Amino acid sequence: xxxxxxxxxxxxxxxxxxxxxxxxxxxxxxxxxxxxxxxxxxxxxxxxxxxxxxxxxxxxxxxxxxxxxxxxxxxxxxxxxxxxxxxxxxxxxxxxxxxxxxxxxxxxxxxxxxxxxxxxxxxxxxxxxxxxxxxxxxxxxxxxxxxxxxxxxxxxxxxxxxxxxxxxxxxxxxxxxxxxxxxxxxxxxxxxxxxxxxxxxxxxxxxxxxxxxxxxxxxxxxxxxxxxxxxxxxxxxxxxxxxxxxxxxxxxxxxxxxxx
Length: 260
Prior knowledge:
CATH class: Alpha Beta
Largest sheet: 5 strands, antiparallel
Number of helices: 4
Strand order of the largest sheet: 10-9-11-16-17
Oligomer: single chain
CATH architecture: Alpha-Beta Complex
Helix content: 25-40%
C-alpha cells in the first residue's frame, strides 16, 4: 500500500494550504470534463491537465510517483471503461458510449489534494449511467460519515452497503487514504468493511483528519487484474468500472469537501 506515517490531524493553517491544492484539482477535473467528447484522445486530455495544473502554480503529484522500482510517467491517471484506476493515457480516440475516469493529484506549497471523476463520452447505456450515479452517490454517503467521533469503517459501511445493494462489485485491492504533506498517508480508507484478519485499524475519526475517500465500483465482479504495463488495474470480467474521489476534512457534521 502507498502510505506515509505522519500526523493524522491537521491544523487550520495546514488545511487552508490543502484547500488551495484541492481547489486546483477540482478546477482541473471540471475543465477536463468540459473537453470530454468522442474523438478526443486521453493523451490530449492528460497533456491539458498537466498544463492546467502548472499554470495555476501546482505540481502534478502523480508524475514521477514511485512505487518500488516503478515510476508513473503521467500527470493524471486516465482509465477507460473496464480500467478501474491507474490507467495510462493513449493516442486512441474516445468513442461514443465510453466512460473515462480521470484521477488527478496536485502539490502546492508542500501540501496535496487528490480527486477523481468519471465522465460519460457522449450518450452512454442507461445501465452504465446507473453505475456512475450509484458510485458518485456512494462517495457522498461516505463523505457524510466522515464525522468527528465516528469510526473509519462507518465510511466503508456506507459505501459498501449502497453499492452492493445495487448489485455492484466493491473493489477490495485498492482503497482510499490519508492525505496532507504526502499524497498517500495513513490511514487506509477501505470501501468495504474488512475482516479483523486484514489488519485495517478501525480508527476513531477526529476533527481535522484529512482523507481521500474514493469508491472504485465495478458493474460486475469485484475482482480485478493488473495490465502488462504493471500500473493499469482492470476489472477481471471486462465490465465497466466507475471511480469518484474527494479530499475531505473530518468535521462534526460530516466531511468538509476540499476538492469542490
